[in-house]
Design a protein that fits this description.
By secondary structure, the chain is α+β, with helices and mostly antiparallel strands. The protein is 28% helix and 27% strand. Strand 4 and strand 5 form a beta hairpin. Bound molecules: zinc ion (ZN).
């Protein structure tokens, strides 16, 4: 089959569940931990060529498209995975089809989205002289880097972007901001037999850590979709020997924020709550709060394409953040709790459902 982009031909193919699962299993076999997506890039280049798509490549990012019309929809999701954790009992790269599920690393995050979006690119029915559908499989979503956050600036104008992440096909139009603070609490070391000669950094840090808990519990700001801003102490490290009063404790705070209490305002409150013994060594603020209007045309199209899906918020952070201008939403087959999980799986019929919803969104949005 060959698509003559720019012509007014209409695709009439439908992608079967078998085809989707075949692509998914081939992707599972490819090792594609963040930074090593080369083979996944080759996979998509081959498939794009096989189906006659135009595409461009920049680093480990690809953009394929159909049509030459003005109204443009972009599908984006990531080719990279996290490394397999120690809990895996299966071979992460040997796809196992069992009980209607496909097990394998990246099968859920974001394999189902990748094959569903590709299937939609292949088969969505729209007038190619009036609209354009683009699909960008990009790298390094799981780490900061060279993926969509850079590539978005090389993509021609688009009116709307669907970000593929496993949401159980719920329509997510918001995600919380995120920051990490690396802190150090300093005291004075002494022999453990003479604690009065030192200042125990463990006690100083403990008091400041409890202040973080108190601060978090006192947050009264709420967002109807995103809930509340959260703070969590996530790492704690101190002490040099069993007989030494520690002079230093290093710890890390993770913050997830809402528009009513954003990254900046939350960090200011943390700074104010800490004693003079604790200093912030490093602030990492990669994602702000991202939120779109439920009345947007794209969201309305998604509601029609997936009438059983609820409109809500995404639990984590995603590449949707880098789409700052266009309409947007996050949606994909699979369960968020299966992402990064040992023996990760996705249901085969869920992959099909994701594909059908993506296709429906494209046809509704580009047909208007
Ligand atoms: Zn993901």
């Amino acid at each position: 089959m060959k698509f003559n982009t720019g012509s007014a031909m209409k695709a009439s193919v439908s992608v079967s569940q078998d085809q989707l699962i075949d692509w998914l299993c081939r992707l599972v076999r490819i090792k594609r931990v963040s930074g090593n997506e080369h083979e996944a890039v080759e996979f998509f280049k081959q498939e794009f060529s096989r189906f006659g798509f135009q595409f461009k490549q920049s680093g480990r990012n690809l953009l394929a498209w159909r049509g030459s019309g003005k109204k443009t929809l972009l599908f984006n999701t990531h080719t990279d995975t996290v490394p397999a954790n120690k809990g895996w009992t299966l071979d992460p790269h040997d796809p196992l089809r069992k009980d209607g599920r496909v097990h394998g690393l990246g099968a859920n995050d974001a394999g189902g989205c990748l094959v569903g979006m590709f299937g939609a690119l292949l088969s969505a029915d729209f007038d190619e002289s009036r609209a354009t559908l683009m699909f960008a499989p990009t790298c390094e979503e799981e780490v900061a880097g060279d993926g969509f956050e850079k590539f978005v600036h090389e993509i021609p104008h688009f009116d709307a972007c669907v970000t593929g992440e496993p949401t159980n096909c719920e329509i997510c139009i918001a995600e919380r901001g995120m920051f990490k603070l690396d802190l150090v609490t300093r005291g004075k070391s002494a022999h453990a037999a003479r604690p009065w000669q030192g200042v125990n950094a463990a006690y100083l840090a403990a008091r400041d850590i409890l202040k973080i808990e108190e601060l978090y519990e006192g947050f009264t700001e709420r967002d109807e979709l995103l809930g509340r801003t959260t703070l969590a102490v996530v790492m704690l490290n101190g002490g040099v020997a069993r007989n030494v009063i520690p002079s230093e404790v290093k710890w890390t705070v993770d913050g997830r924020t809402i528009p009513q209490l954003d990254n900046e305002a939350t960090i200011a409150r943390v700074e104010k709550a800490l004693s003079e013994h604790t200093k912030i060594e490093q602030k990492k603020v990669r994602f702000g709060v991202w939120k779109r209007d439920a009345k947007d045309e794209l969201v309305q199209c998604a509601c029609k394409a997936a009438p059983k899906s609820k409109v809500g918020a995404f639990g984590g952070v995603s590449d949707a953040w880098w789409n700052q201008k266009a309409q947007g939403l996050i949606l994909g087959p699979g369960l968020s709790e299966q992402s990064h999980a040992a023996d990760e799986w996705i249901e085969e019929k869920e992959v099909m459902r994701g594909y059908e919803i993506y296709r429906g969104i494209a046809e509704k949005f580009l047909g208007q």
